[in-house]
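Quick one, probably user error.
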């Protein structure tokens, strides 16, 4: 349960915050152990307003990157875990992150390990993050672990952002094109078509097609919008089921150019994720299992889950990957070499760097290809529309002379 409190610290400063505890008494005890005088404490209602829903109330990845670097720096300076998280909670700009770190601080003060305290907040700290911290606790290298985490999250954030941004531009241009064309068909063409039809001049077949389309959108446009809404609801319903999500992920990977880009992104994520965990001493089966949860594709998640089961039964990791066409031969062979030489971690690191470069090159190629294709397609669309309407009008003007 979450309790909101008002307290006074040892310097007489009033403070407010929130603490997660199984009961009110435990919450008060946790605050008193921190040397705070409790003025008031009450359970926070679970009801949330529209703007407090998890969709709007998230901790950005860049904040977790900065947090990880700060923790690593403070641990290097021999600052205790309790003091570290207490300082970061007090200075965090993101309110949700500040609240979560305050709860982590209270748990650590109550004797819970850092990984155990972080695991209570899966909406902020992923299973991968928690397991990395747990490995750092076991090896006594927490400062290095948080530094690794910051570097890893930074790489993944940059890679994902570049891929997403590469797709935003063409989507925006295409959406704008359809909006402009819709306005042309609904507002402009009906007025011009009236002039053409009233003139009594013969109307070319391509102009008749454009006028027919315009009449359809004017008279039955609402049916078309209803049809699009129904299609959207159908896709949403499919995406709500596990089988549907796998189906849509397969479609995403099969789209020319874009599918290849996503494939390389997922392979980069798999390699980087596993290299980071294996370097921290996490067993390979556990590393594969955790990677399957954060890879971001249900197709590759299923492959990794099957691979984890295969490794448990005594198979080589490379042998389990070789069964799937989604795993390229170069990756399978590199993993096999890493297993034979006992250097799987460095091999995965090399693969991660290789696929990162591949993603960068694929994004640059895609952007370079999309721009001229869009210019040609949009130019043809607008050109056909203008010729179909303006040519008859020019003919009418010429006949008047």
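Nope, works fine. Designed sequence:
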């Amino acid at each position: 349960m979450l309790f909101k409190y008002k307290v006074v610290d040892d310097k007489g400063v009033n403070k407010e915050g929130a603490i997660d505890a199984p009961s009110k008494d435990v919450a008060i005890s946790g605050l008193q152990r921190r040397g705070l005088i409790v003025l008031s404490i009450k359970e926070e209602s679970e009801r949330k307003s529209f703007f407090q829903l998890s969709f709007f109330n998230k901790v950005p990845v860049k904040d977790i990157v900065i947090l990880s670097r700060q923790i690593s720096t403070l641990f290097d300076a021999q600052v205790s875990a309790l003091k570290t998280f207490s300082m970061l909670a007090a200075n965090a700009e993101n309110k949700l992150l500040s609240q979560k770190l305050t709860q982590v601080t209270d748990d650590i003060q109550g004797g819970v390990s850092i990984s155990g305290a972080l695991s209570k907040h899966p909406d902020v700290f992923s299973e991968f993050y928690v397991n990395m911290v747990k490995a750092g606790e076991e090896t006594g290298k927490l400062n290095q672990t948080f530094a690794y985490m910051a570097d890893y999250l930074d790489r993944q954030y940059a890679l994902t952002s570049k891929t997403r941004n590469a797709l935003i531009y063409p989507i925006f241009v295409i959406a704008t094109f359809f909006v402009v064309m819709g306005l042309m068909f609904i507002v402009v063409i009906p007025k011009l078509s009236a002039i053409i039809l009233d003139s009594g001049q013969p109307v070319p077949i391509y102009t008749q097609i454009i006028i027919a389309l315009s009449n359809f959108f004017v008279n039955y446009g609402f049916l078309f919008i209803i049809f699009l809404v129904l299609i959207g609801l159908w896709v949403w319903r499919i995406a709500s089921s596990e089988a549907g999500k796998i189906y849509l992920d397969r479609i995403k990977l099969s789209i020319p150019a874009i599918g290849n880009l996503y494939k390389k992104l997922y392979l980069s994520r798999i390699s980087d994720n596993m290299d980071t965990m294996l370097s921290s001493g996490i067993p390979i089966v556990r590393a594969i299992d955790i990677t399957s949860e954060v890879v971001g594709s249900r197709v590759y998640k299923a492959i990794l889950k099957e691979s984890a089961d295969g490794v448990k039964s005594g198979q080589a990791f490379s042998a389990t990957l070789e069964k799937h066409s989604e795993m390229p031969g170069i990756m399978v062979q590199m993993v096999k070499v890493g297993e034979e030489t006992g250097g799987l971690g460095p091999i995965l690191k090399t693969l991660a760097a290789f696929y990162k470069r591949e993603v960068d090159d694929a994004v640059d190629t895609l952007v370079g290809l999309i721009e001229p294709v869009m210019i040609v397609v949009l130019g043809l669309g607008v050109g056909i529309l203008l010729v179909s309407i303006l040519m008859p009008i020019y003919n009418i003007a010429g006949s008047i002379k």
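Strands lie at 2-8, 14-20, 37-43.
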